[in-house]
Amino acid sequence: MSHILLIRTFEDALPLASHLETLGKKVLCYPLFEPVFFAIPPLENPQALIITSKNALRAIKDNSYLKKIPLYVVGDQTAALAHQLGFITVFSAKGNSRDLQELVTRQAQPEKGVLYYLSGQISKRDIVRELRVLGFKAQRQVVYQINDIERFSNSLITDFFNKKISHVLFFSPRTTELFVDLVKASKLEKEIALNKALCLSYDIAEQAQKILWKEIWISPHPSTNNMLGYFDDGK
């Protein structure tokens, strides 16, 4: 039986793997990176925190003071993790980073303090600049960095050559871009063309389209449940 490849960190991949295995699927977990967390300095006059990734949330999970500050997150999965970690007030945009910015601008108030965007070292969108244009006080605080793997392992390359993998799930543009680069470096384009790419959103699919796939499927809504729903009808 072919396997579904998950390239997220083990913390994120294992719950997905468990769900897929209940559907009778075989799963292979192969993280492409590991996060390194940084200590966060005291925040001056915080109104709210803004987070676009679970890694940023994990970076502050032991800070009891920050858990009392209102928290804005992109989606329900991150919101669920925030509640699990003990954050008191959590607002979910139920979508992407643009939906998150719209939620913040609707609910936050420019005169009530600073909006702190807690991010990784690399950020695709300048949320802070956009909020400042709208009259908010906003600052970015880097709380983690991502250490990418430099190449696929020989075992994963062999799995592709032996047609052991049928689907690859993509949840972020950055991880998708890294995967595509590693495919090219390993000269696996012909093998990847036999696989299906399942993408959380259109911007992720844009990165996946840089190589040829058997099929590129885009989730109708950017949520993990919708991604997993692809397999509910026995695909």
Structure in words:
The structure is a single chain. By secondary structure, the chain is an alpha/beta fold. It folds into two domains: 3-34 and 149-229, Rossmann fold; 42-145, Rossmann fold, CATH 3.40.50. It has ten helices and eleven strands. A six-stranded mixed sheet has the order 3-8-7-4-5-6, with helices on both faces. A five-stranded parallel sheet has the order 2-1-9-10-11, sandwiched between helices. α7 (173-185) packs parallel to α9. The longest helix is centred in the first third of the chain and has 13 residues, at 10-22. It starts with a strand and ends in a 6-residue tail after the last helix.
Brief synopsis:
With 235 residues, the protein is α/β, with parallel strands linked by helices.
Q: By helix and strand content, what is the structural category?
A: alpha/beta
CATH architecture of the largest domain: 3-Layer(aba) Sandwich
Parts with pLDDT < 50 across at least 5 consecutive residues: none
Run of helices and strands: EHEEEHEHEHEHEHEHHEHEH
Task: Let me know the number of strands.
Answer: 11
Give the CA-based shape: elongated
* Fold-level CATH name of the largest domain: Rossmann fold
Spatial extent as radius of gyration: 19 Å
| SS strand fraction | 15-25%
CATH class of the largest domain: Alpha Beta
Please give the order of strands in the largest beta sheet.
Answer: 3-8-7-4-5-6
Please summarize the sheet with the most strands: 6 strands, mixed
